[in-house]
Amino acid sequence: MKTLILGLGNILLSDEGVGVHVIRLLRERYQFPQEVEVLDGGTLALDLLPYVEDTDRLLIVDAVQMDAPPGTVVRLVGEEVPAVLNLKYSPHQMGVSDLLAAARLLGRYPAELVLWGIQPASLDVGLELSPAVAAQMETVVQNVLADLQRWGIQPTRRGEE
Predict the structure, then answer these.
(1) 34, 55, 111, 113: which has the fewest C-beta neighbours closer than 10 Å?
(2) With the C-alpha atoms ordered 81, 77, 8, 62, is the resulting torsion angle positive or negative?
(3) What is the pLDDT of residue 96?
(4) Is the torsion defined by CA of 88, 60, 142, 28 positive or negative?
(5) Helix or strand (DSSP H, E) at 142
(6) Tell me, what's the pLDDT at 15?
(7) Which DSSP symbol is given to 56?
(8) Is 101 exposed, middle or buried (0-12, 13-18, 19+ CB in 10 A)?
(9) What is the mean pLDDT of each run of 10 residues along the chain (161 residues)?
């Protein structure tokens, strides 16, 4: 089974880029089995369709507008994911909703879908994450690893090969 870990966001807009930052940490720290792709999806949206079409399990990390305190982490599964993406504030997120709809239309929707979202504190222009979101980075990385483990995937920590 093929698994895609997809980090989304615009790193030029502070917390909006949290998904990309998580992907960078995962790539720096871990070696993944061949059947796992760890992808910085940035703001590509529909351009990501070939990757999504080819996956059985999709794990997305993104900033999510939940009207919650900044830094709040949420895990959404299955049909909860497209529903929350329809309520987004960022242009790339509407594209992700379209991406999932296109995959479904083509009969290539992932059998399993998980979204790890973080409530942003700042969407101002800037490369740094806000303190509230930066403080949750390790939590999200560990949660992603826990989901992978539930799927029977055990990445190797770099330096421990």
Answers:
(1) 34
(2) positive
(3) 79
(4) negative
(5) helix 137-150
(6) 95
(7) S
(8) middle
(9) 95 94 97 97 87 94 91 93 63 70 91 95 94 98 98 92 57
Distances (CA, A) of 135 to 8, 67, 84, 131, 132: 19, 18, 23, 6, 5
Q: Is the pTM of this model over 0.90?
A: yes
pLDDT of residue 45: 79
> DSSP labels for 82-129?
HHHHTT-SSHHHHHHHHHHHHHHHTT---SEEEEEEE--S--SSBSSP
What per-residue confidence (pLDDT) applies to 161? 57
- With tokens 């483990």, the residue in question is 149
Type of residue at 13: L
CATH of the domain at 46: 3.40.50.1450
Single-letter amino acid, residue 89? Y
CA 42 to chain centre: 10
Closest CA to 39 of 53, 59, 14: 59
Tokens at residue 118, please?
């973080």
Do residues 8 and 59 touch, judged by C-beta distance below 8 A? Answer: no
Structural domains in the chain (count): 1
Q: Which two tokens stand for residue 101?
A: 């709809």
Residue-number span of the structural domain to which 63 is assigned: 3-157
